[in-house]
Amino acid sequence: MTDGPWLVVGLGNPGPQYAGNRHNVGQMVLDELARRTGASFGGKGGGVLSRRPQASVAEARLGMLPGGVPGPRVVLAKPTTYMNVSGGPVAALARYYDVPVERVVLVHDELDIPFADVRLKRGGGEGGHNGLRDTSKALGTKDYVRVRVGVGRPPGRMDPADFVLRDFAKPELKDLPWLLDAAADAVESVVTEGLERAQLRFHTKS
């Protein structure tokens, strides 16, 4: 592993009206990572934060390496733009912190994965996810890591766009803390062990 920081971005929409939506599960995972590390998100305040536009940012070390060494430096970021224009903040943060694309991790909702499953990949298509599409465009590449948090398919003939902009259903809420914990574990595994080992861990059913 290299000494440079990782950029971990949780996708979602800004504002309290969206906070509990399925589309915002990536930002919920970032809140869990901040809780674990004791980090606090800063926004458009004074000082250096004022030069990090359109994102709420926290810096921390994540996980533990062998021998009890603190894990890699991470920049945790939640764009304050709407989902469809997430790419600008991601690219700006990557430039600001000099993070190469191989250490950029996006955490996002995934319709094509059953609720409560977590999958990891680097690159590939965006599957109709506008946040990913805009990020790929802004970065000029698709070769960043995705932590894909399963929210399942909409019931019946519900429009997927409507489904992801609804809060989790009551039966899902009891499992949501477990899902957020698993997704946070997946991010931690990526930055401390590497993507391939993390995939072996999270793609193998116990």
Automatic annotation (TrEMBL):
Active site location: H23 (proton acceptor)
Enzyme class, UniProt record, top EC level: hydrolase
Gene3D superfamilies tied to this protein: Peptidyl-tRNA hydrolase
Annotated binding of tRNA, by residue: Y18, Y82, N84, N130
E.C. no: 3.1.1.29
Any GO BP: rescue of stalled ribosome
GO cellular component: cytoplasm
Family classification: Belongs to the PTH family.
Quaternary state and interactors: Monomer.
Job of this protein: Catalyzes the release of premature peptidyl moieties from peptidyl-tRNA molecules trapped in stalled 50S ribosomal subunits, and thus maintains levels of free tRNAs and 50S ribosomes. Hydrolyzes ribosome-free peptidyl-tRNAs (with 1 or more amino acids incorporated), which drop off the ribosome during protein synthesis, or as a result of ribosome stalling.
Protein name: Peptidyl-tRNA hydrolase
